[in-house]
Amino acid sequence: MNLRMDTDKDTGVAILTLDRPEKLNAIDLATAEQLASAWQALRFDDTVRAVVVTGTGDRAFCTGLDRNAASTVPQPNSPYSIDDPLLTIGPKSNDLWKPVIAAVNGMACGGAFYLLGESEFIVADPSATFFDPHTTYGMVSAFESILMAQRMPYGETARMALMGTTERMSARRAYEVGLVSELTEPGEAVTAAVRRAETIAGYPPEAVQGTVRACWAAQEAARAHALAYAPHLVSLGNLPTERQAELFTARRPVREARLR
What we know:
- This protein is α/β, with parallel strands linked by helices.
- It has a single domain (3-186), classed as 2-enoyl-CoA Hydratase, Chain A, domain 1, CATH 3.90.226.
- It has helices spanning 29-43, 67-70, 112-117, 143-149, 154-163, 171-177, 189-201, 205-237, 241-249; strands spanning 3-8, 13-18, 50-55, 60-62, 100-104, 107-109, 121-124, 129-131, 167-170, 182-183, 257-259.
- It has a six-stranded mixed β-sheet with strand order 1-2-3-5-7-10, sandwiched between helices.
- Helix 4 runs antiparallel to helix 5 (154-163).
- It is globular.
- The mean pLDDT is 89.
- This is Enoyl-CoA hydratase.
């Protein structure tokens, strides 16, 4: 299993942990299926009233779709559709309205935004960094940018998406622009997220889930409208998979700038 779930029946909090540290918690097809199954199972587990999602190790929360998995997903020959294995890895995509808090340590990039974008809020370790590598490797950042545009001002979203691997947004900067709601002491992100989850889990679940649904509804119309464009933007703008792989394999160390 590439995913662990630990549930505390006394507090009503579950911790969902991506567990591929050797791959920087990148999501392969098996992990994508496990995430979808986990969110669906949590819908029916009344002992769980709040969830924390995180990644194993201190190097990365998640580095998006595993490149080996990406090369095995066949794509339809149409600008109006695309098969994206990450579209169902988030809680809202699986009709889960229990509150989800993301605890981020290390890198969070690319496909990680599918999880961050469907969390209620983000708690981050000072080591956390956020970036979007798509344009560097000849790919359109569509779904990721749409999700991040719900979290940050337009200029911050556009800069992250367009600068690719050259820049990484620091945890401090992410806090300043509103992507992160809480910046913790080193090593305390999961602990802090669990504390917040325990507080929320102590409230009546009907009221909590209704509030989550109301907050999501405030963004949903614009998000749904934007997502309708995403498949053909990706289909039209992505380089062929073979060329993406060449760029990825030939990548050179970049003089990385970290936004303070």
